[in-house]
Predict the structure.
Amino acid sequence: MSHNAESTAFRSALEVIRAVEPRVADAIGAELTDQRESLKLIASENYASPATLLAMGNWFSDKYAEGTVGRRFYAGCQNVDTVEALAAEHARELFGAAHAYVQPHSGIDANLVAFWAVLADRVESPALKKAQVRQVNDLTEADWFALRRELGNQRMLGMSLDAGGHLTHGFRPNISGKMFDQRSYGTDLATGLIDYDRVAEAAREFKPLILVGGYSAYPRKVNFRILREIADSVGATFMVDMAHFAGLVAGKVFTGDFDPVPHAHIVTTTTHKSLRGPRGGMVLCQPELADQVDRGCPMVLGGPLPHVMAAKAVALAEARRPDFADYAQRIVDNAQALAEGLLRRGATLVTGGTDNHLVLIDVSGYGLTGRQAEQALLDSGIVTNRNSVPQDPNGAWYTSGIRIGTPALTTRGLGTAEMDQTAELIHTVLTHTTAGANADGTPSKAKYTLDADLADKIARQATDLLAPHPLYPAIDLA
Ligand code: DSN
């Protein structure tokens, strides 16, 4: 395939869009420019391949296909069947899973499908049946309470949000915190690491229906064999949300005890993070849960997104190629080089380093909140996101942390030497940023000062760092 084909495809698409609403075409073009020019360190983002992107922009988007492969509630789904079956086959082969369900539109959808599959598998109750036929969002707090009481054990034990867990693992404002009577396990305050003995103790006391493993801001690998043993010891179903590190599992960086698929009853993921596919979700499970998982639609989902399933099939095929394992290893090498570069310059990192794709900087060491640090870095052309650190005194909005990740820059081809330079840029911005004050003189958690010339200089250095590694080099929209 020639480079020309990619340029032609995207140029033609924009020409067609421009004829209808030029402002959308302009925004799409501007987004490419912005992504090309900024140092993207958001741990949950990546750059999907042109083939993956193109698989989404077509008439598959027009098709309804509720049901499963070969058993649809609409006629004419033979081509949707083809792409859904292909995506599921690639997912099973890639992860060594018994069953794959590729319809979820996002990570939260995948988690909801998994929760309801476990509940439906464990419980036959009139209240559950009632919930199944109602819009889940219509249920009131009182409905949830009554449902939980009727169902009996509906307890979930997951990692707390400030220790690095995800909001769908039982955070109160999320629906998972309403469906389940939730308790969380944190990390050891001294080391920042999961203390498996304390997880086992919490499981013994709480006796959860579901033990959830997985994270969105924990910079270390997790021993899923031990978590499965804990789940078994209390009769819990073991679920892992591998959204962040699916690419590291696919690329065989995480194997044995650190690969969730052989250990968990059910595994969920998104497809667009380290896995580098289209924006979407997926559920993998053991055979006994397959029927319930396949009822994700109509239980949780409406019509699947056939164009996204087509793109999932493309991206999963890419992840089965040998070079994906090399990519996955380079993600971790880069994250470790970034962590070492920051540590050498005096930064404080949660857990003191990383085993995976992400690094969590405790920016209180720089006298800043996460929000101040995030904005100062953005002024300097470095895109990150603020994140809580364990027991964060600044809460989930201002935070005390900056989460950075390497999947995107690794896709562009940056290596460990450039990660050290990136650490220098980050450290320079953070040491030259000063926390501001409110009008009444009290310390502000949002205001900050950073010399504009310095920010511009760093942004130019960031662009220089990226220059040898153009994003989508074959695509020229000019
Ligand atoms: N928003 C994703 C992340 O950044 O980790 C998870 O939902």
In short: Residues 27 and 271 are 24 Å apart (CA to CA). The longest strand covers residues 443-449.
